[in-house]
Amino acid sequence: MDARKAPLRQEQALAALAEVDEIYVAKGKRVIHVDLKKQKPGNDALLPLLLGPTGSLRAPTLRVGRTLLVGFDEATYGQILR
Questions:
Q1: In the prediction, which pLDDT does 74 show?
Q2: 5: pLDDT confidence band, cut at 50, 70 and 90?
Q3: What is the 3-state secondary structure (H, E, C) of 17-74?
Q4: Which of 4-8, 32-36, 65-69, 73-77 has the lowest mean pLDDT?
Q5: Measured in whole angstroms, how far is the alpha carbon of residue 23 from the centre of its chain?
Q6: What are the b/e assignments for 25-37, b being 16+ CB within 10 Å?
Q7: End-to-end CA distance of the chain
Q8: Are 14 and 47 in contact (CB under 8 A)?
């Protein structure tokens, strides 16, 4: 799916989390890891991690198995995509 033509909004971004166990979010130089099985954060905590300033799912976003990668961090991609 091309997110430029059909951007994913709040509901779709949260729906994507139903199929993952953990997310890694690259924000600037830091990477935030959320274990959705152990931590069980609410939507109010997850939405700022998933959505960009336009209210759409941040890019790039990649699902690898039961892991969601949001934003780009070369080291994290290398670790997850081995």
A1: 95
A2: low
A3: HHHCCEEEEEECCEEEEEECCCCCCCHHHHHHHHECCCCCECCCEEEECCEEEECCCH
A4: 4-8
A5: 6
A6: bbeeeebeebebe
A7: 24
A8: yes
Q: What is the pLDDT of residue 66?
A: 96
d(CA 22, CA 34): 6
Instruction: Please name the residues in contact with 32: beta carbons below 8 A apart, sequence gap of 6 or more.
Output: 24, 25, 49
Domain ranges for the chain: 10-80
pLDDT of 1 > 60? The answer is no
User: Is the CA virtual torsion 34, 38, 77, 47 positive or negative?
Assistant: negative
Indicate the pairing of strand 67-70 with strand 22-27.
parallel
Quote the pTM value.
Answer: 0.86
Residue 39 CB coordination number (10 Å) = 10
